[in-house]
Amino acid sequence: MIIPMSQPTIGNAQFKLLEELCNACAVSGDEGEVRKIVLGQMKPFADEIKVDAMGNVLVTKMGQGRDRLRVMLDAHMDEVGFILVSDEGDGMFGFQTVGGIDPRHLPGKPVWVGKDHLPGVIGMKPIHLASEDEVKRKPSIDSLRIDLGPNGKASIGDWATFATKFKRVGPSIMAKAIDDRIGVATLIELVKHAPENIDLLAAFTVQEEVGLRGAKVAAYTFDPDLAIAIDSTPAHDMPNHDSSESSFYNTKLGLGPAIYIYNRSTIDNPRLVRFLKETAESKGIPYQIRQPGGGGTNAGAIQRARAGVPVVSVSVPHRYTHSPISISRVDDWKNTISLLHTALQKVMPDLIQS
Ligand SMILES: [Zn+2]
Question: Is the pTM of this model over 0.90?
Answer without folding.
Answer: yes
